[in-house]
Amino acid sequence: MTKRMLGYLRISRADRSRDTSLGIEAQREAILSTATVKGWEIVGWNVDDGVSGKDTDRPGLQAALAVLRNRKRRTADGLVAAKLDRLSRSVIDFGDLLATSHRQRWAIAVLDFDLDTGNATGRFIAGVLMQVAQFERELIGERTSAALAALKAEGVQLGKPSQVTPEVQAAILQHRAAGLSLSAIARRLNIDGIPTQSGAGQWSHTVVGGVVRRSAEKVAA
Q1: Which helix (H) or strand (E) element contains residue 189?
Q2: Are 97 and 69 in contact (CB under 8 A)?
Q3: Measured between alpha carbons, how far is 45 from 29 in angstroms, rounded to an integer?
C-alpha cells in the first residue's frame, strides 16, 4: 500500500540569505527524490516561509497537524521533512510531535536523520527520542521547582497571589523555557483541559503572559 505523506517545508528569514541547501525548493526536491525511492505519494505541501522554528506555533505546521489529527477524515498517513531543524529546533517540541503522532497513529519521517516512524526501527528511535525529551522536560521542571522553593524560603511575595496552582505554573514556565510562544502554551493548556485561574473560560496568551511575568518578577527580586 502506498504511503500518503504531507511534505513540510520551512525557512526562516535568515535562511533566505544563507546556504541554498536550506531553501524551500531544495527541501522539496529532496522529499520528492526520497518519495520516488520509498514509493510515497506526496499528497500535499505545507510551507512556513520566513518563519522561525523556535516553537511549533507555525501556520504551515499547524495546518498539517490539523489534517493528520482526524483519523476518520485523514487524507495523509504521515508528515515528512527534509531536515530535522526544519521541523523542530527543540528536543522537547520534537518529542511532543513524536508523542502526538504515536497517539494519533500517523508517521513522521525526517530525511537527514534517516527517521521514519512508519517502520519498527523508526518507532524504536522515536521512543528513545521521546525519553530524551521527557528527561529534558523533567530537568527544566526540577530547576524551576528549585528556584521557586528558594524564593519561598526567602519569603518573597510580589503583587497579588496567583490563583494558578504551582503545578500549572511549573508547566507554563517549562513550556516557555522550551521556546513555546504564549499563544502556543495557551493552546496546549486548553487542549489538555487545564482549568484557568477562574475555573471558567479559555486560556489566552494574555493570561499565560501574566503567569510568566509574575514568575520573572519574583526571580528579579
Answers
A1: helix 182-191
A2: no
A3: 12
Yes or no: say if 204 and 186 are a contact pair by the CB < 8 Å rule: yes
d(CA 145, CA 108): 33
The pTM score is 0.62
pLDDT tens column, 9-56: 999 887 776 655 578 999 999 999 999 999 999 999 999 999 988 888
pLDDT tens digits, one per residue of 139-195: 767 777 776 666 566 655 544 545 678 888 888 888 887 778 888 888 888 887 787
Residues labelled as active-site residues = 12
Q: Are strands 115-116 and 107-110 parallel, antiparallel or unpaired?
A: antiparallel
SS3 178: coil
Query: Residue written as cell 509574575?
Result: 214
Query: Letter for the amino acid at 19?
Result: D
Site of grid cell 502556543: 184
pLDDT at 167: 80
Average pLDDT of the residues in 83-99: 87
Coil, strand, or helix at residue 52? coil
Q: Is 120 exposed, middle or buried (0-12, 13-18, 19+ CB in 10 A)?
A: exposed
Residue 24's CB is within 10 A of a number of other CB atoms, namely: 18
